[in-house]
Amino acid sequence: IVDVKGGPNEGLDRVGLMIVVAGWVRTLRAQSSVTFIEVNDGSCLSNMQCVMTSDAEGYDQVKSGLITTGASIWIQGNVVPSQGSKQKVELKVNKIVLVGKSDPSYPIQKKRVSREFLRTKAHLRPRTNTFGAVARVRNALAYATHKFFQENGFIWISSPIITASDCEGAGEQFCVTTLIPSSREAAESPVDAIPKTKDGLIDWSQDFFEKPAFLTVSGQLNAETYATALSNVYTFGPTFRAENSNTSRHLAEFWMIEPELAFADLKDDMACATAYLQLYSCMQVRYILDNCKEDMDFFNTWIEKGIIDRLSTVAERDFVQLSYTDAIELLIKAKKKFEFLVKWGCDLQSEHERYLTEEAFGGCPVIVSDYPKEIKAFYMRQNDDGRTVAAMDMLVPRIGELIGGSQREERLEYLEGRLDELKLNRDSYWWYLDLRHYGSVPHAGFGLGFERLVQFATGVENIRDAIPFPRTPGSVEF
Ligand code: 4AD
Ligand code: MG
């Protein structure tokens, strides 16, 4: 359908062509002498209106009521100018084939259904306008991300999903264990097949890796090893957090983009994040506007009015940059009733982040730097003041924290000292520490939550609608 209707004159240059459309019926309207079928094949938001009279091959299947909303069909016909006002062209059908029937219980009918309801039908929701559009824009953003880094000399690294170390040191990892093949069949429940000691604890020595293993919370530590060999690298893959956060911006499984720059400090890191987002906003929003125009117009009308203007604004303005200490002062001066008390040393909550970017700086992205070391991860480089670290978070309107990054501690003695202070086991990080023995360099990087970017670019309010199959506390299906 996009090949026919996606051009500048919405298909008029395709008039006269005979084409085949394979897709799913959105609606079917039978009148006395003609039947109209709206078909969508997911290539774009637009349906193809197919007009059929009784002389079309296969018409009996339409007449007998076999073809209904949700059915998959194959249609051959000629592109003709449309009589209707909604589209420039339509298909005059020669032949229709029913590929798969749809039961009358098909839940995605024409009437608008709520997002909450659709989350319970995650296997069918990509057939709606909203989720089809989100999937296409998400795809365009992934493509544009690789394009940005590839064009700027970064090398893409695959970081492991199963890992033994906790990058953030926050203990929010999912544990990976094994179902022993011998006991698998005998076991009544999968849990019975996990190797256990006499006391009923997991017997790690019998487990697949012979020690505890986890799903990664971030690919950063692994990316650092490649950055200290290949210079600028990035990862782009799934990450996992067992955070019990039931909010509209947290997932248990989310995708992260993590560039890591060698011979670089915090300023370089901020410049890279800004270039990414601004380029994303000019070139990359340009990219999605050019490549997903119809989908973006849809979001602009139905999901967040004015989103295209908002994104263009981001592209044009210089991002605000201020220290954590200044941000705290500003928040205290705001004399606003925040739910969480603001004082130096506190972690910024999303209400504070949103105040900064939305109210204090009128919708401009804000980079906050140099946070207290107590609220940040062990690997961040300590500043000379002894109480802050070279960290930066980028905050954007509606979302709050989109990016978290830092300059890394490249000095062995500081890094070891920090691990000890936080009571993290040096042995689990031996290889990470080892890097500091051999040609250590100043380096920095950041992580960008891809679903938050999708939220930012499409206006969808809940992060559960920015990923095809959301995983949140108490919910794993599909
Ligand atoms: O700030 P975070 O925890 O930073 C790191 O993981 C670093 N190791 C990244 C690095 O420097 N390479 O996470 C980075 C970003 C956040 O700013 C946020 O956008 C996203 O990942 N994020 C989440 N997105 C969805 N659901 C969650 N539970 C998320 N936690 C973090
Ligand atoms: Mg963070």
From TrEMBL:
<dbReference type="InterPro" id="IPR004365">
    <property type="entry name" value="NA-bd_OB_tRNA"/>
</dbReference>
<keyword id="KW-0030">Aminoacyl-tRNA synthetase</keyword>
<dbReference type="Pfam" id="PF01336">
    <property type="entry name" value="tRNA_anti-codon"/>
</dbReference>
<dbReference type="Pfam" id="PF00152">
    <property type="entry name" value="tRNA-synt_2"/>
</dbReference>
<dbReference type="InterPro" id="IPR002312">
    <property type="entry name" value="Asp/Asn-tRNA-synth_IIb"/>
</dbReference>
<dbReference type="InterPro" id="IPR004522">
    <property type="entry name" value="Asn-tRNA-ligase"/>
</dbReference>
<dbReference type="InterPro" id="IPR045864">
    <property type="entry name" value="aa-tRNA-synth_II/BPL/LPL"/>
</dbReference>
<dbReference type="InterPro" id="IPR006195">
    <property type="entry name" value="aa-tRNA-synth_II"/>
</dbReference>
<keyword id="KW-0436">Ligase</keyword>
<dbReference type="InterPro" id="IPR004364">
    <property type="entry name" value="Aa-tRNA-synt_II"/>
</dbReference>
<dbReference type="InterPro" id="IPR012340">
    <property type="entry name" value="NA-bd_OB-fold"/>
</dbReference>
<dbReference type="GO" id="GO:0005739">
    <property type="term" value="C:mitochondrion"/>
</dbReference>
<keyword id="KW-0547">Nucleotide-binding</keyword>
<dbReference type="GO" id="GO:0005524">
    <property type="term" value="F:ATP binding"/>
</dbReference>
<comment type="similarity">
    <text>Belongs to the class-II aminoacyl-tRNA synthetase family.</text>
</comment>
<keyword id="KW-0067">ATP-binding</keyword>
<protein>
    <recommendedName>
        <fullName>asparagine--tRNA ligase</fullName>
        <ecNumber>6.1.1.22</ecNumber>
    </recommendedName>
</protein>
<dbReference type="GO" id="GO:0006421">
    <property type="term" value="P:asparaginyl-tRNA aminoacylation"/>
</dbReference>
<dbReference type="GO" id="GO:0003676">
    <property type="term" value="F:nucleic acid binding"/>
</dbReference>
<keyword id="KW-0648">Protein biosynthesis</keyword>
<dbReference type="GO" id="GO:0004816">
    <property type="term" value="F:asparagine-tRNA ligase activity"/>
</dbReference>
<feature type="domain" description="Aminoacyl-transfer RNA synthetases class-II family profile">
    <location>
        <begin position="136"/>
        <end position="468"/>
    </location>
</feature>
